[in-house]
Specification:
34% of the residues lie in helices and 22% in strands. With 438 residues, the protein is α/β, with parallel strands linked by helices. The two termini are 37 Å apart. It binds S-adenosyl-L-homocysteine, iron/sulfur cluster (SF4) and FE3-S4 cluster.
Length: 438
């Protein structure tokens, strides 16, 4: 049997897309290999949001090229956002690549690799009209009790630092009937937690005469779905009806990922985020008033072109003021073709490095303080399996999306109560009490 291996970079949408890529390869009769070294078809599902994933890919493709020289039958396929950004150039940059495809054209992978031919294909790119929802393709699921559900593709925002609109195209929503049919069949198959996915998940549905709040309510009504998550929302689209739906739907978890990017209104304007610091802080107040015990996470960028020390300090104070439970912190990385990359006032690398260190320190201190307040609570945890760092512990997540390592004996997929006894900046620790629902 021929075997495949998929390496995934980037965001949850790519993790979702990789499950579809695997599903398609399995339909073609391939089995999964444990490592790229053992595979006949080596796939990289790429990300190009910052420079780092591009460099990482180069190293992986070097290894894959070496394998191909030793085993010339090996097929190397590169999909995802980096492939979409490079298009035809990918074949000259990396002559070892046989097949390349964009995020919207995963559906073609079968034709290119199919019928046992495994022929060389030159890419078909995805930002044009022919894009197909990856969600409609066969699926290989990593977990039986959790699932990603794609509700839209593309992004209509114009954030000046971001390459996503160029590689994922204009926003298109998936029909609510299709989304719900998928979630109903997932629930029947034993899935109890779904994460709704879109580049801008809460602008969902405007192209179809519906909206994200209605979708949340409809998903909440599906029997068997006990936890609903979604990512990533944009603060500008967090309307009152979405907050109400979050507050009223039992299955919607008490967590929102709310990317702030910068605490400086001046920088936010240059980023074209369309909200100010004040509007963001008011939104946080509104959400916390409606949803008791809400956890908030965020994305932050340091070193955006023109960011002064004063602007940066406003990001630090915003972290303190909001009290984020967790935050992803990024050094600004210029992306070819974006508005911000063309600016002449780029921040020097040493300044960026200094700022990211100071930001991480504040983020970790605030998160540690927030987590410390959970000690003594009993929290509902969805068991994911043994802890990766110490298999004598189980690992799972609370409704507020905190990772918990705990002693207990529940199998993956169970919902259990855990008494929280310890906290760090990124994890909680505790002991399993009663099983809530098996
Ligand atoms: N659609 C999502 C995710 C975008 S990518 C959203 O809007 O929230 C995830 C994060 O990467 C962004 O929120 C931003 O913080 C960061 N990011 C995007 N482009 C970047 C760049 N050029 N340099 C550094 N960080 C970037
Ligand atoms: Fe990028 Fe902005 Fe769209 Fe998010 S909302 S994907 S940061 S352009
Ligand atoms: Fe990366 Fe594409 Fe996601 S650039 S962050 S994989 S949308």
């Amino acid at each position: 049997m021929r075997r495949y291996h998929v390496t995934t970079f980037g965001c949850q949408m790519n993790a979702h897309d990789s499950e579809r890529i695997k599903g398609m390869l399995e339909e073609l009769g391939l089995g999964e290999a444990a490592a790229p070294e053992d595979a006949d078809v080596v796939v990289f599902n790429t990300c190009t949001i910052r420079e780092k994933p591009d460099t990482k890919l180069a190293a992986y493709l070097g290894d894959a090229g070496a394998r191909k020289r030793a085993h010339p039958d090996t097929v190397i396929a590169v999909g995802g956002c980096y492939a979409e950004a490079q298009q035809e150039r990918i074949f000259s940059l990396y002559p070892q690549v046989d097949v390349a495809f964009g995020p919207g054209t995963i559906a073609h992978l079968g034709e290119w690799l199919g019928a046992g031919g495994f022929g060389v294909a030159r890419g078909t790119w995805g930002t044009g009209e022919e894009r197909v929802f990856a969600a409609t393709l066969p699926m290989h699921r990593e977990r039986t009790f959790q699932a990603w559900v794609q509700i839209s593709m593309g992004c209509n925002s114009v954030c000046s630092y971001c390459i996503v609109p160029a590689v994922r195209g204009r926003e298109v929503s998936r029909r609510p009937g299709e989304v719900l049919a998928e979630i109903e069949s997932l629930a029947t198959a034993g899935v109890r937690e779904v994460t709704l996915l879109g580049q801008n998940v809460n602008s969902y549905g405007r192209d179809l005469g519906t909206d994200f709040a209605q979708l949340l309510r409809a998903v909440d009504a599906v029997d068997g779905i006990e936890r609903i998550r979604f990512t990533s929302p944009h603060p500008k689209d967090f309307r009152a009806n979405v907050i109400e739906a979050m507050a009223e739907c039992n299955a919607v978890c008490e967590h929102a990922h709310l990317p702030l990017q910068s605490g400086s209104t001046r920088v936010l304007k240059a980023m074209r985020r369309t909200y100010s610091r004040e509007r963001y802080l008011a939104l946080v107040d509104e959400m916390r008033a409606a949803i008791p015990d809400l956890a908030l996470s965020t994305d932050l960028i340091v070193g955006f072109p023109g960011e002064t020390e004063e602007d940066f300090c406003e990001t630090l104070t915003a972290v303190e003021e909001v009290g984020f439970d967790s935050a992803f912190t990024f050094v600004y990385s210029p992306r070819a073709g974006t508005e911000a990359a063309a600016r002449t006032d780029q921040v020097p690398d040493d300044v960026k490095r200094d700022r990211i260190e100071r930001l991480v320190e504040v983020v970790q201190r605030v998160a540690t303080e927030r987590n410390a307040t959970r000690v003594g609570n009993v929290e509902e945890v969805l068991v994911e399996g043994p802890s990766r760092t110490d298999p004598s512990f189980l690992r799972g997540r609370t409704r507020r999306n905190m990772a918990v390592n705990f002693t207990g004996d529940a199998p993956p997929g169970d919902l259990v109560n855990v008494r929280i006894e310890r906290a760090t900046s990124q994890t909680l620790g505790g002991v399993q009490l009663a099983v809530v629902r098996v």
